[in-house]
Design a protein that fits this description.
The complex is a heterodimer of chains A (500) and B (329). With 500 residues, chain A is of the alpha+beta class. Chain A has 21 helices and 15 strands. In chain B, a hairpin with a 7-residue loop joins strand 1 (74-75) and strand 2 (83-84). A two-stranded antiparallel ribbon of chain B has the order 1-2. The chains are: A alpha+beta (500), B mainly alpha (329).
């Protein structure tokens, strides 16, 4: 215990000093004066999950807050953090829950459900806090250092294995019923596992790559909108035919920040794996199968079938919504953007399909599945209560999550078989023009996001971008990526840490 | 003299008489002070005056710097003991082609931005100097406006200007040139992001340059004119030498800040295409965003190395220009 405390204290000191140091180091030589430069700031290009985290500071919702009594109220801080107030019933255990801020409807859904949970029993009282996405990690780190970390927090799939390695999450087997884990779809089960233990309960998945296309433009170009392209060659052919005047045939990622994660699904499609051996001991970026993938990106860019200077990042559907492109590769979240665009004609003319496959095989993965889970902190003193809340919210009544997916406009997808059945009996869900196609043709074959360091994804993204923009030919680009991955393996001692 | 006044002050006037011992001590002190050379007494006063700043500097700059060096020797984990790695990370950073590429990008960006700003500022300041008071005031305000515009906003506006169908391509289209992917082309991107950098920086440089120009005695120019010197000769032999210290200041601060630029490339290109605009600070920033223990130590080490590089660069500029303490005639 003492040793652990010493390590923790040392870690806190180091973290605080290091953060101050990097900032101080960056400004050390800057002594004012005329500047072609500007103040610090930044944005995050995201990765794998593009759920919006708009910081509007709005209220988290209302409803009966319980563990027994009281109406819920919200309090906003200047940083955009919202807290739902309420009073726990006598004897109830209070647990804190931090949620990354997503679209407004999600905050409302969480607040309503938490109010219901608090009213439904008097043993556990959930204190709900919404934290903007851009400060979530920083606030969580600060809270962990101060020992005030939440009992339950939203965690994305990609952070689970590293978090478990650092001892951040409590094991949930035995705290959440086994049948709840059995309800998770087979291709998602492993996302929340490290070894054979479960450390999170999944909420949803969002496939990273879906093909959206305009049926009216396809028809005008002499293409059959009911038979979308199924191979990469056909996709290039469609892009060529749909490029007319200022309207480009296609938009797809073209910068490192976007390519690093949005191409994972297509890497799987091209080679059946990622450019590193399963145990992360060897770089495998020079495999011949990746040549086709780089050719796809290169042709689309160099033939000018896609915008040459993207205004927005990959997750933003604006170029398609504004009619600048006829086809778009984007994640399932773009469905929400299309429905929110208030352009009924565009929506009527939009079709979705699985992104084409290298050889036309529809069963090959074309997307990775990003998304969110709830985790219990390993230092929580109320792990059972926290797990009970997660079980109630995400793993029990299928109608509860079915309602959530309805609110999302069916732009996000369930990870539970029972929720699928509930949705199947909902006319609105079955009539949705996009949901069934994405669920059956994309999500079903989707792969888990890799847990390896970003440097590896960036190395391969550099290869794609180099060949796209003519900085190096495909062979040289892949060789450079291979060398960078080898270097990362050695420096970060990754050999043997891979999990297949 | 002050000491004498103090020791001979009358015991009255509300001040209790000093004990005999204290009076003897005062005399010793007096003797000692008389024996202390005047320049040493001045130094003591000077050190006392700068002590608050030195203490603050030690707390907020020197100590973090020393601690950063200490941290760069450890890989630090959340709930595991930190692991001593010696100078491994210095080797990792110094052998990383991307780090060197980022330094080179920063240097190229600085070479595009800083001299351009200096030349533009000198020309504009010379022009403003010739204007009437009211016109000069209007122009001074106008050129300063970019300095108060948000860098983020500027970056975004320029992104839209460089679009396939943006105003820049519309302009070059008037000469029959096909639209250029300014921000997605290795050969044009650095120049393209330098333009907002110059636009943001040249206003304040112009004002500094103008202040220095106005400080040059007009009699120098009158004498030169009498000798038949033309505008070029007056500029070359009077203006530029007299602005030497201002040039030095603008060069050192300009290069230091331009080498550290990261916001403009972050907003406009995210460091691309293929790292063509990844400056050193953007490189460090991207590393720091990764939450792994490796990235943590790596970014600290890279920041320390950048600090050394910037220090050397400033030293080089000082040496090259051989600044005089005062050349004010």
């Amino acid at each position: 215990m003492s040793s652990h405390r010493t390590h923790t204290t040392r870690y806190r000191r180091r973290l605080t000093a290091a953060t101050a140091t990097v900032v101080a180091g960056a400004v050390l030589a800057a002594c004012g004066g005329p500047s072609p430069a500007g103040p610090a700031g930044g944005n995050d290009a995201g990765g794998g999950n593009a759920a919006a985290t708009e910081n509007t500071g709005d209220a988290a919702g209302s409803g009966a807050a319980g563990g027994g009594d009281g109406a819920a109220t919200t309090a906003n801080t200047t940083s955009g953090v919202s807290e739902m107030k309420g009073t726990a019933a006598a004897g109830a255990t209070t647990i804190s829950f931090w949620q990354t801020k997503f679209e407004d409807y999600q905050q409302k859904w969480f607040a309503d459900q938490i109010a219901k949970y608090n009213s439904s029993q008097n043993k556990v009282f959930v204190k709900y806090t919404v934290v903007p996405g851009d400060v979530f990690e920083t606030k969580l780190k600060a809270a962990q250092q101060a020992g005030t970390q939440p009992d339950v927090a939203t965690t994305n799939y990609g952070s689970i294995s590293d978090g478990v390695a650092q001892g951040k999450f409590a094991e949930l087997d035995g705290k959440i019923p086994a049948e709840a884990f059995a309800d998770i779809k087979d291709n998602v089960k492993d996302f929340v596992k490290v070894g054979d233990k479960n450390y999170a309960y999944p909420m949803l998945v969002e496939p990273s790559t879906v093909l959206y296309y305009r049926a009216d433009l396809a028809k005008a170009a002499g293409l059959d909108p009911e038979k979308p392209p199924t191979t990469w060659d056909e996709l290039i052919d469609w892009s060529a035919k749909l490029t007319k005047g200022k309207v480009k045939g296609m938009t797809i990622a073209s910068t490192k920040a976007d390519l690093s994660w949005s191409s994972w699904g297509l890497q799987y499609n091209a080679c059946g794996r990622l450019p590193i051996s399963d145990d992360w001991s060897k770089a495998e970026a020079t495999s011949e199968c990746y040549t086709k993938l780089l050719q796809l990106y290169q042709t689309l860019f160099q033939k000018k079938y896609m915008p040459q200077t993207p205004k927005v990042g990959y997750p933003d559907a604006a170029p398609y919504v504004n009619g600048e492109v006829a086809m778009m590769a984007n994640g399932s979240w773009a469905v929400g953007q299309l429905k929110d665009a208030k352009k009924p004609e565009l929506l009527k003319n939009t079709r979705v399909a699985a992104f084409p496959s290298v050889d036309g095989d529809p069963k090959k993965p074309t997307a990775t599945l990003g998304g969110w889970t709830l985790t219990v902190d390993s230092k929580s003193k109320n792990q059972d209560g926290a797990a009970d809340f997660i079980n109630w919210l995400l793993a029990s009544d299928p109608q509860r999550m079915a309602e959530f997916f309805k609110l999302s406009g069916y732009s996000k997808f369930t990870v539970r078989t029972s929720v699928d059945k509930a949705l199947a009996s909902t006319p609105e869900a079955t009539n949705d023009p996009f949901m069934k196609i994405i669920n059956d043709q994309v999500v079903q074959f989707g792969k888990q996001e890799p847990g390896y360091p970003l440097d590896i994804s960036n190395a391969f993204a550099d290869a794609i971008e180099s060949s796209m923009k003519g900085k190096a030919d495909i062979k040289a680009s892949l060789e450079a990526a291979n060398a960078k991955i080898e270097r990362t393996i050695q420096q970060q001692r990754l050999a043997g840490k891979g999990n297949g | 003299m002050t000491s004498t006044t103090q020791t001979t002050a009358p015991a009255g006037a509300g001040i209790a008489p000093a004990p005999a011992g204290a009076a003897r001590l005062s005399k010793r002190q007096l003797r000692k002070m008389h024996s202390t050379p005047k320049h040493l007494r001045s130094n003591l006063t000077a050190f006392l005056m700068i002590a608050p700043l030195l203490i603050l500097l030690a707390i907020f700059v020197i100590w973090p710097l020393v601690y950063a060096f200490y941290l760069s020797g450890y890989e630090t984990y959340y709930n595991r003991p930190a692991e001593f790695v010696g100078l491994d990370f210095y080797k990792f950073v110094l052998t990383d082609p991307l780090f060197w590429s980022a330094l080179w990008v920063g240097l190229k960006y600085s070479l595009l931005v800083v001299p351009t700003i200096l030349v533009l500022s000198l020309l504009l300041a010379s022009f403003i100097k010739t204007l009437s008071g009211k016109m000069a005031a209007i122009l001074k305000t106008t050129v300063y406006v970019p300095a108060v515009v948000s860098v983020v906003l500027t970056g975004l506006v320029f992104v839209f200007m460089y679009q396939d169908s943006g105003v820049v391509n519309a302009f070059v289209g008037m000469f029959g040139i096909e639209p250029v992917a300014w921000l997605n082309n290795d050969s044009t991107v650095l120049a393209a992001i330098s333009v907002p950098g110059i636009w943001l920086g040249f206003g304040i440089s112009t004002l500094i340059m103008l202040a220095a120009l106005l400080d040059i005695p007009e009699s120098y120019y009158e004498a030169a004119s009498l000798e038949g010197a033309n505008w070029f000769q007056r500029t070359w032999y009077i203006t530029i030498p007299m602005l030497k210290n201002v040039f030095l200041y603008l060069l050192v601060t300009g290069f230091t800040l331009a080498m550290q630029e990261y916001l403009i490339p972050l907003i406009m290109t995210n460091g691309g295409p293929v790292n063509a605009t990844t400056t050193t600070n953007l490189f460090i920033f991207n590393q720091f965003r990764d939450t792994s223990a490796f990235a943590f130590t790596y970014s600290i080490t890279a920041a320390l190395i950048l600090f050394v590089v910037l220090g050397l660069l400033s030293l080089l500029i000082f040496k090259a220009i051989k600044s005089d303490k005062a050349v004010d005639g």
